[in-house]
Write a structure and sequence with these properties.
The structure holds two protein chains of two kinds.
Chain A: H1 5-30, H2 44-75, E1 78-81, E2 86-89, H3 93-100, H4 102-133, H5 140-148, H6 155-165, H7 184-209, H8 213-222, H9 226-237, H10 239-255, H11 258-263, H12 275-282, H13 288-313
Antiparallel strand pairs in A: 1-2
Helix pairs in contact in A: 1-10, 2-13, 3-13, 4-7, 4-10, 4-12, 6-7, 7-10, 10-13, 12-13
Chain B: E1 4-13, E2 16-26, E3 31-35, H1 42-50, E4 57-62, E5 65-66, E6 77-80, H2 92-102, H3 119-132, H4 148-160, E7 166-170, H5 178-195, E8 198-203, H6 206-212, E9 215-220, E10 223-228, H7 230-235, H8 240-245, E11 252-259, E12 267-269, E13 274-276, E14 290-295, E15 300-302, E16 308-317, E17 321-328, E18 331-338, E19 348-353, E20 359-361
Helix pairs in contact in B: 2-3, 2-4, 3-4
Classes of the chains: A mainly alpha, B alpha+beta.
Chain lengths: 321, 370
């Protein structure tokens, strides 16, 4: 899942584009410039060539993604005995037990919490910074560079910085949040929001720069005030970018690990143990079956959440330019 | 409806003067075309009317009101952009309706406060605009599903639906193909006649200017060169720039010297013959005075006994007319003739012209002598 990353998402956004435009295809055909050609038959030569060209990437995917994933599914059916001394094939019963168990549910809830804390704030911050830095002013590049700079810092570095910032004795934000089960997740989220800020800013800014100046000027002359312009014109026009960012941030949130491991180590009393953190903890010979079940669980959670985002929000996204 | 006045308006971008002390009055209900080559300041002038550019110096008035510091939305002007600038996420109906949704209008009389239109009023206006511009069946579509010409009409409808004091148009036809452009020119003139509002239209295309304008303002390098009806700027260009900018092919110009010793009165020696001078000017010219002669291609006539020698370089036959390219002395000169010319490339022809159609320009100031 993690190696599929943003690249795969970009292509799925594109596919979405075609689907969104499907309604227009009929009209466009009338004008003789259909964007999507009707299904045409390919000759055997073309099919052969396509297979040949696709073969290397399919081979890589099979070797490093699909086959390991099948192995993972398989491992989930084995229960360890005597602390991993041997394994027993128990079929799907381990899946049933573990995925309905309270530990998995707790992990899922912590992951969801983390997503809820980081994603809306990340989106809002990205839009806010990008809108304020999308101006023709001398020296604006300096601010653009500053706002995007968190993109270049690694999660490990960011986490160490925030770990010390939150230190109750020497930290600048001297609070006891990291030892407070109700607040520890907020503290971790703040470091992630900061970390993601650069990415959100860069992506939203790119979206804003693609909006034609004349459209914004037309809105100005039509009488749209600044707030209306943002809500009714700018945001709809950059909605494809916002959807992309939303999907990416949610996946980042569900997959977050390093910041939790460094800042709280899952604590206090397991309050920041997200699913990924638990999977990592379970990744030992005596628990590898359960770890596999959790991994499969996380995969389907991610798949469902991402699909829902596309299905629900696609209608509200305007791809046409 | 209102007049627009530029009172020595200047616009500077850093060190570049885009518009230099422009004085121009656009009358109420007039179709004014701002014409000039790219970079002449015409679009900047238009954007200053809209309020999209600040005015560096001078005063801009809409009606009697100085609007230098008035918010663009409050100026009650609308603009059609080169790219049409439609809202891609809205249907045609919403695009047209959009100014009505956010602006307040003085619909209850000039003394009543401005208010938002009711839904019924908005629908009525949108449908009217759609009917006038033939968009009735397209109202539910999004701009992406429209052709260039249809998008352009939506942009016009959006500009027109709020009944603004003035329409501003920034090269609105330049994204259309030649055939559609010609048709839309007629439609625009027609629309202007119907809505009787002030139009300021920016273009670099002299054909658009000549065919649509009540008056043309010609700009070059930020300076106003001439304002006048299409006929005035064509027949009495104020200076060499206007003479050469208006007309296709442009007016021929030949530097020469006034000679008063000829039998047929004063003439200008252009190196390869003498061009007769316009009758009204003869009295003001002195022997040896340097001038630039300007004659339009259609006013030169191939004649075996003509006084001017024309070395023919190429002949272009266009069907209804032909263009004879060549030179008189050192100056390139084109002769336009209906039908087919009986001269060949490489030969030498002789041409003559009606003295009344000859223009003389001062070589230093480039102003036309009158």
């Amino acid at each position: 899942m993690s190696d599929a990353g943003p690249g795969a998402l970009v292509s799925s956004v594109d596919t979405g584009n075609n689907a969104g435009a499907a309604g227009l295809v009929a009209e466009e055909r009338l004008q003789g410039r259909g964007r999507r050609r009707s299904r045409q038959r390919y000759s055997a030569r073309e099919v052969g060539l396509a297979a040949l060209l696709l073969a290397p990437s399919i081979a890589v995917f099979v070797a490093f993604a699909y086959r390991p994933f099948l192995n993972l599914l398989n491992w989930g059916t084995f229960e360890s005995r005597r602390n991993g001394a041997y394994f027993v094939d128990v079929g799907l019963s381990q899946y049933r037990e573990q995925l309905t168990g309270s530990d998995f549910r707790d992990g899922l809830w912590h992951s969801v919490q983390f997503v809820l804390y980081t994603v809306p704030a990340g989106l809002a911050l990205g839009v806010l910074l990008a809108v304020s830095a999308h101006r023709r002013l001398r020296g604006i590049k300096v601010f653009q560079a500053i706002f995007s700079s968190t993109l270049a810092s690694s999660v490990a570095v960011t986490s160490v910085i925030f770990f010390y910032l939150f230190n109750p004795v020497v930290g600048l934000i001297a609070t006891d949040w990291l030892n407070d089960p109700d607040r520890a997740m907020i503290a971790v989220s703040i470091s992630s929001i900061w970390q993601n800020m650069g990415l959100s800013f860069v992506i939203v800014l790119a979206g804003l720069q693609a909006v034609p100046d004349e459209v914004m000027e037309a809105a100005l002359l039509d009488g749209y005030g600044a707030v209306r312009r943002l809500l009714r014109i700018t945001l709809p026009l950059i909605s494809p970018v916002l959807l992309f960012l939303l999907v990416v941030l949610v996946i980042f949130g569900l997959q977050a690990f390093a910041q939790i491991d460094i800042i709280t180590r899952g604590g206090p009393v397991g309050a920041t143990e997200t699913l990924v953190f638990k999977i990592n903890r379970l990744n030992r010979p005596d628990n590898i079956g359960i770890g596999a079940v959790y991994s499969v669980g996380l995969f389907f959670v991610t798949l469902i959440v991402t699909t829902l985002q596309f299905v629900i929000l696609e209608r509200r996204v305007h791809y046409a330019r | 409806m209102a007049s627009l006045t530029f009172d020595s308006v200047t616009k500077r971008f850093d060190d570049v003067v885009a518009v230099d002390a422009l004085d121009l009055t656009i009358m109420d209900g007039e179709f004014m075309v701002l014409l000039g080559p790219s970079g002449c300041g015409k679009t900047t002038a238009l954007r200053m009317i809209a309020g999209l550019e600040d005015i560096t110096d001078g005063k801009l008035l809409i009606g009697d009101e100085v609007v230098n510091d008035v918010d663009p939305a409050k100026r009650d002007v609308s603009m059609v952009f080169q790219s049409y600038a439609l809202y891609p996420h809205m249907t045609v109906r919403r695009n047209i309706e959009s100014p009505l949704l956010v602006r307040r209008y003085r619909v209850d009389g000039p003394d009543e406060p401005a208010r938002k239109l009711t839904r019924a009023e908005r629908t009525e206006r949108v449908e009217e605009a759609a009917r006038v511009l033939g968009l009735g069946e397209l109202l539910a579509r999004k701009p992406a599903a429209l052709s260039g010409g249809q998008r352009q009409r939506v942009a016009l409808a959006r500009a027109f639906v709020g009944r603004p004091k003035a329409f501003l148009m920034d090269e609105p036809l330049s994204n259309l193909d030649a055939k559609l452009r010609a048709a839309t020119r007629l439609e625009l003139v027609d629309l202007h006649r119907r809505v009787e509002t002030t139009v300021v239209y920016v273009t670099h295309d002299q054909v658009e200017a000549m065919t649509m304008a009540d008056r043309i303002a010609i700009l070059s390098a930020g300076r106003l060169q001439q304002v006048g009806t299409p006929q005035q700027v064509y027949e009495a260009p104020a200076n060499l720039f206007v003479a050469q900018f208006i007309g296709t092919p442009p007016m021929n110009t030949m530097p020469g010297t006034v000679r008063t010793d000829g039998e047929a009165g004063p003439a200008v020696d252009v190196g390869a013959g003498r061009v007769p001078v316009p009758p009204g000017l003869a009295a003001h010219l002195g022997e040896g005075q340097p001038v630039v002669v300007g004659v339009r291609p259609e006013h030169l006539v191939l004649a075996p006994d003509g006084p001017i020698e024309h070395r023919v370089r190429a002949v272009e036959w266009l069907g209804h007319e032909c263009l004879v390219f060549g030179s008189v002395g050192p100056s390139p000169v084109v002769v336009r003739q209906t039908g087919m010319a009986s001269v060949d490339a490489g030969s030498t022809a002789r041409v003559t012209c009606d003295p009344a159609q000859v223009h003389l320009f001062n070589p230093d100031t480039t102003e036309r002598l009158t």
